[in-house]
């Protein structure tokens, strides 16, 4: 199964670098996700990722007011990305394993397509496994 098949149903959710931890948490709740792409400050900057865990560890646990914490203080950069939608999911899984990440940002040129998580890959792998016998029977 190719990466493009996996990202079809994924909603790209991102947040501006001017945002706060509170803004990120609200965006996560509205989008029913626990992670967001943090946009670049300039063309020379790297994209970042912020997760609910980042907000807990870097803002809540330190007793900070979430509306006062800039997203840039808690986002992790650089982001692990891929631009090749034609890759088989096994290569995406290998890249994620090599980079020790559970989420990979997917871009089509400069267009953010969304994040692929380890759960997305597992679901795609099991779907692919169940389709194999049907393909072989034809």
What does this structure look like?
- The chain is of the alpha/beta class and 138 residues long.
- The chain has one domain: CBS-domain (Roll), CATH 3.10.580.
- The protein is built from 6 helices and 6 strands, in the order αβαββααβαββα.
- The chain has helices spanning 3-7, 21-31, 52-60, 71-74, 89-99, 118-137; strands spanning 14-15, 35-38, 48-51, 81-82, 103-108, 111-117.
- It has a 3-stranded mixed sheet. It has a 3-stranded mixed sheet with strand order 4-5-6.
- The protein is elongated, with a radius of gyration of 17 Å.
Q: Averaged pLDDT, please?
A: 89
Low-confidence stretches: none
Supply the helix-strand structural class: alpha/beta
Q: What is the CATH architecture descriptor?
A: Roll
Overall helicity: 40-55%
**Given this structure, which CATH class is correct?**
Alpha Beta
Silhouette: elongated
Multimeric organization: single chain
User: What is Rg?
Assistant: 17 Å
Topology pattern, helix = H, strand = E: HEHEEHHEHEEH
Q: Number of helix segments?
A: 6
What order do the helices and strands come in, and which of them pair?
Blueprint: H1 3-7, E1 14-15, H2 21-31, E2 35-38, E3 48-51, H3 52-60, H4 71-74, E4 81-82, H5 89-99, E5 103-108, E6 111-117, H6 118-137
Parallel strand pairs: 1-2, 4-5
Antiparallel strand pairs: 2-3, 5-6
Helix pairs in contact: 5-6
Keywords:
single chain; 138 residues; alpha/beta; three-stranded mixed sheet
Please sum up the structure shown.
The chain is of the alpha/beta class. Helix content is 43%, strand content 18%.
């Amino acid at each position: 199964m190719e990466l493009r098949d996996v990202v079809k149903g994924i909603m790209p959710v991102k947040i501006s670098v001017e945002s706060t931890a509170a803004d990120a948490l609200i965006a996560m709740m509205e989008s029913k996700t626990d992670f967001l792409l943090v946009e670049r400050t300039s063309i020379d900057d790297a994209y970042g990722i912020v997760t609910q865990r980042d907000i807990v560890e870097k803002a809540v646990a330190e007793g900070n007011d979430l509306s006062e914490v800039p997203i840039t203080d808690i986002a992790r950069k650089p982001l692990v990305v891929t631009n090749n939608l034609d890759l088989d999911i096994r290569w995406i899984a290998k890249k994620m394993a090599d980079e020790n990440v559970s989420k990979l940002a997917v871009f089509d040129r400069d267009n953010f397509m969304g994040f692929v998580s380890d759960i997305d890959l597992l679901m795609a792998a099991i779907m692919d496994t169940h389709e194999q016998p049907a393909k072989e029977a034809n």
